[in-house]
Design brief:
Layout lengths: L8 H12 L36 H17 L7 H14 L5 H20 L1
Helix pairs in contact: 2-4
Length: 120
Protein backbone atom coordinates (compact mmCIF):
# COMPACT_ATOMS: atom_id res chain seq x y z
CA UNK A 1 0.00 0.00 0.00
CA UNK A 2 1.40 3.41 -0.98
CA UNK A 3 0.46 6.64 0.66
CA UNK A 4 0.67 9.83 -1.34
CA UNK A 5 0.98 13.03 0.61
CA UNK A 6 -0.09 16.27 -0.92
CA UNK A 7 2.44 19.08 -0.54
CA UNK A 8 0.99 22.58 -0.36
CA UNK A 9 1.90 24.71 -3.39
CA UNK A 10 4.00 27.24 -1.48
CA UNK A 11 6.20 24.48 -0.03
CA UNK A 12 6.52 22.71 -3.36
CA UNK A 13 7.56 25.97 -5.06
CA UNK A 14 10.12 26.68 -2.32
CA UNK A 15 11.58 23.18 -2.73
CA UNK A 16 11.79 23.52 -6.51
CA UNK A 17 13.37 26.97 -6.25
CA UNK A 18 15.93 25.85 -3.71
CA UNK A 19 17.11 23.04 -5.99
CA UNK A 20 17.47 25.24 -9.01
CA UNK A 21 19.82 27.92 -7.69
CA UNK A 22 22.23 27.83 -4.74
CA UNK A 23 21.61 30.46 -2.09
CA UNK A 24 23.97 32.25 0.22
CA UNK A 25 23.47 31.29 3.84
CA UNK A 26 21.58 33.83 5.88
CA UNK A 27 23.90 35.56 8.27
CA UNK A 28 23.99 38.92 9.90
CA UNK A 29 26.69 41.29 8.69
CA UNK A 30 27.57 41.83 12.35
CA UNK A 31 28.12 38.15 13.04
CA UNK A 32 30.39 36.00 10.95
CA UNK A 33 29.48 32.58 9.70
CA UNK A 34 30.70 30.06 12.26
CA UNK A 35 31.06 27.31 9.67
CA UNK A 36 32.83 29.23 6.92
CA UNK A 37 36.50 28.41 6.78
CA UNK A 38 38.56 31.52 6.19
CA UNK A 39 42.29 31.86 6.18
CA UNK A 40 42.11 34.03 9.27
CA UNK A 41 44.42 33.15 12.15
CA UNK A 42 43.02 31.36 15.17
CA UNK A 43 41.95 33.54 18.07
CA UNK A 44 43.69 31.24 20.50
CA UNK A 45 46.67 29.33 19.31
CA UNK A 46 48.58 26.73 21.24
CA UNK A 47 51.50 29.11 21.73
CA UNK A 48 49.60 31.87 23.52
CA UNK A 49 49.65 31.98 27.29
CA UNK A 50 46.64 32.41 29.49
CA UNK A 51 46.67 35.78 31.21
CA UNK A 52 47.10 35.59 34.96
CA UNK A 53 46.02 37.95 37.70
CA UNK A 54 47.80 38.39 41.00
CA UNK A 55 46.14 40.27 43.86
CA UNK A 56 47.80 43.37 45.24
CA UNK A 57 48.79 42.50 48.82
CA UNK A 58 48.47 46.14 49.92
CA UNK A 59 44.86 46.36 48.68
CA UNK A 60 43.99 43.01 50.27
CA UNK A 61 45.62 44.05 53.54
CA UNK A 62 43.63 47.30 53.58
CA UNK A 63 40.35 45.43 52.97
CA UNK A 64 41.11 42.91 55.71
CA UNK A 65 42.00 45.63 58.23
CA UNK A 66 38.79 47.48 57.36
CA UNK A 67 36.67 44.38 58.05
CA UNK A 68 38.60 43.69 61.25
CA UNK A 69 38.16 47.32 62.39
CA UNK A 70 34.39 47.05 61.86
CA UNK A 71 34.32 43.95 64.03
CA UNK A 72 36.49 45.48 66.76
CA UNK A 73 34.37 48.65 66.95
CA UNK A 74 31.12 46.74 67.31
CA UNK A 75 29.48 45.69 70.57
CA UNK A 76 27.13 43.32 68.70
CA UNK A 77 27.38 41.60 65.33
CA UNK A 78 27.73 44.52 62.89
CA UNK A 79 26.63 42.56 59.83
CA UNK A 80 23.48 40.75 58.81
CA UNK A 81 23.63 36.94 58.59
CA UNK A 82 24.49 36.92 54.88
CA UNK A 83 27.34 39.42 55.22
CA UNK A 84 28.73 37.66 58.30
CA UNK A 85 28.62 34.33 56.49
CA UNK A 86 30.40 35.87 53.51
CA UNK A 87 33.14 37.32 55.70
CA UNK A 88 33.62 33.96 57.48
CA UNK A 89 34.40 32.44 54.09
CA UNK A 90 36.32 35.15 52.26
CA UNK A 91 38.37 36.65 55.10
CA UNK A 92 40.57 33.53 55.48
CA UNK A 93 40.78 33.16 51.68
CA UNK A 94 41.87 36.77 51.25
CA UNK A 95 44.70 36.30 53.72
CA UNK A 96 46.29 33.83 51.28
CA UNK A 97 47.59 36.85 49.36
CA UNK A 98 49.71 37.91 52.37
CA UNK A 99 52.88 36.49 53.91
CA UNK A 100 52.01 33.40 55.96
CA UNK A 101 52.86 34.80 59.39
CA UNK A 102 50.80 37.95 58.84
CA UNK A 103 47.96 35.93 57.32
CA UNK A 104 47.82 33.56 60.30
CA UNK A 105 47.74 36.49 62.74
CA UNK A 106 44.89 38.22 60.87
CA UNK A 107 42.88 34.99 60.68
CA UNK A 108 43.35 34.46 64.42
CA UNK A 109 42.28 38.02 65.25
CA UNK A 110 39.24 37.81 63.00
CA UNK A 111 38.08 34.51 64.53
CA UNK A 112 38.54 35.92 68.04
CA UNK A 113 36.40 38.94 67.14
CA UNK A 114 33.70 36.66 65.72
CA UNK A 115 33.68 34.64 68.95
CA UNK A 116 33.41 37.82 71.00
CA UNK A 117 30.57 39.18 68.89
CA UNK A 118 28.71 35.88 68.94
CA UNK A 119 28.89 35.80 72.73
CA UNK A 120 27.62 39.40 73.01
Amino acid sequence: MHVVLAVPDFIGKALRDSKSEPREPMSSPRQGDLFRSDDKPELYDDESQTPTWHPDPDEIRADLHKILAEARAATAMPWDDDRASLYRVIFPQMTNALPEEEAAQLRFEFMEELKRLKAA
